[in-house]
Design brief:
Layout lengths: L3 E4 L4 E5 L10 E4 L5 E6 L2 E6 L5 E10 L2 E10 L54 E4 L2 E4 L15
Length: 155
């Protein structure tokens, strides 16, 4: 069984659970049953996500005697999200090149969990680099102009 995965709302996934002897009593728990439910049947773990808004995280734990496996799940219908793992006292910086989000309202964030500072500038026009290819060698055009009399021209 893998240790982490991502799911969309109302999706079902099945994972093979290796190492559990047939006939062993297996208990499966979810840390957030509104986000994900799970059942164990015939050596497989069947996980179903609920309908979520934004991003929810849940942990599914499989217990079978001394056998314990944990599956961490991110459930979201959003394609672009970033899960940040941060230790107490640590800092992380991320650059989002899709736009300037420095004016985004962060008042709903729990400041007891982490302090978020957003800075930014408006995206600039993309830098254009012109590259010329001569025969099989690659050359970069630097904008210099040459008189045609200084060029060799072959026909």
């Amino acid at each position: 069984m893998i240790s982490s995965d991502s799911m969309k709302s109302s999706q079902t996934k099945t994972y093979a659970v290796n190492g559990v002897a047939e006939g062993t009593s297996v208990e499966v728990t979810s840390s957030d049953e509104s986000a994900v439910t799970a059942v164990y049947e015939n050596g497989k773990l069947k996980v179903t996500s609920g309908q979520v808004e934004g991003l929810k995280q849940a942990t599914v734990t499989v217990h079978a005697g001394s056998y314990v496996r944990i599956l961490k799940l991110n459930i979201s219908d959003t394609e672009n999200y970033k899960v940040v793992e941060l230790n107490m006292g640590g800092t992380k910086s991320y650059t989002d090149t899709t736009g300037n989000y420095s004016s985004t309202d962060t008042s709903a964030l729990d400041k007891n969990v982490a302090k978020v500072t957003m800075t930014g500038e408006d995206p600039q026009a993309p830098e254009v680099k012109t590259v010329a290819v001569k025969a099989t060698a690659i050359a970069t055009f630097n904008g210099a102009e040459l008189d045609l009399d200084d060029c060799r021209i072959y026909f």
